[in-house]
Amino acid sequence: MRTFDDVASFICQSFLKKDEQLEMQRTISEASLIDIDIVKRTARTIRRVGIITIAREYPSIVEDPPDLQLLRWTVGKRAALDDNQQTFDWLHKGWILKEVRFKNDGKSVERIHYRMGYLLYVYLTNKQTDEHRDSLNQFTQYQSNAAPKMEQITYLHDERLLQLKDLALFLSGSLQWGLNDLEDQYVFPANWSVSKRINGLNFLLAFLMISSNKEIFDWKEIGAHYYPSIGGSKAFDAYKVEFLIILETISGQSLETLGMISGGQITSIYFAGELEGTWSNYRAGPVHALTNISVSQDHYSTGATTLWLVENRAILTRISAEPHFLQETNSLIVCVDGHLRSAHKHLIRQLLLNSRIHQTIFWSDYDEAGLQIAGEMLHSLMGHAVRYKWICPDHSIITNWSEYQHNMKRLLQYSKSEQEIVLGEADDWRSWINH
Prior knowledge:
By secondary structure, the protein is of the alpha+beta class. Helices cover about 40% and strands about 15% of the residues. It contains 16 helices and 14 strands. The strands form three sheets. A seven-stranded mixed β-sheet has the order 9-6-11-10-12-13-14, with helices on both faces. A five-stranded antiparallel β-sheet has the order 1-2-3-4-5. Strand 13 (about 385-390) and strand 14 (about 395-400) form a beta hairpin. The protein is flat and about 90 Å long. The mean pLDDT is about 90.
């Protein structure tokens, strides 16, 4: 049985305000519940400011878990519950407590809330501890299994070794991480659980192992090769799209380049402006589209000197529809469609290597995701001597990434908007190019 001192300490630390303390006054008629006064003591006064109602007894071992809706409660939650049987049961078992706050007269009720009870706090704390221990064991097991597999990897040829270099370095680094390092990895979305991140690492290792020694393979072979038992081919199916995006982000390569046949999945890259490849030639004018397959197998260049990288198709279609704008300004516009895939990066690298682009104009939404995409677009151009420009909501131009980041983070504290809100006209676009 938990001691009353443990319960009182929890209440004092979690719910009482400055100069407040608990004071036992009386018990109510139900023997299972206890009323405790909250009093505020100052140098001159003692005033009753509220009442806390709690369960009288708390078991040492929790045999039955709380109801599912209680699992989402936090220490700071104030809930307004009906005075029904369910609420009484939760109160009686110690899952919740009742907090009544008085007005200045010490009698009139100002508000009534239900708060996390001591037993619920202990249960959730123990649950979190158990989950942390399970996560640590799971991650340690991954590292133990991955280390010998990494040592046994051999590569088909030097080209594949270079293509997989960044992925191999990332996975080698993961063998030295602690659990906190895994949780802090920016490449994984913030809402991914530890278990999903470890599953993602297993997928990346499985991909590295098969891509390193097979020229061509399909999706099902990745899991089957890594988990030889029945059902292994489906091991990563639940997160296929998400895992492939992470793979492309880390490796900087398209799936086709790394040997995986698309299985009918084709990524489109929309653009407008002059573009020339070995098997195709596009003139400035309407919106065109390339595919991830064509980008991986062809070599593209452009006569344009200004490269626009925009987040949304609406910007692409509007600018391309402006008569003669692309030709007169010598511009090529590439739309990243809300997320920079490896095919986009591959195309951008080709253009920078094979063309004479003098400047790149970045244009993304003015929200958190837009700022992240702006960073991804910049990263895809690193190592190339071109001038960078970012378009701001007020139509001003910033040429320094740190300054743009600072301005956007300050702006996001007050407002968010899409590119289309500040689309502007042809004269605005020309002024940005000539800035």
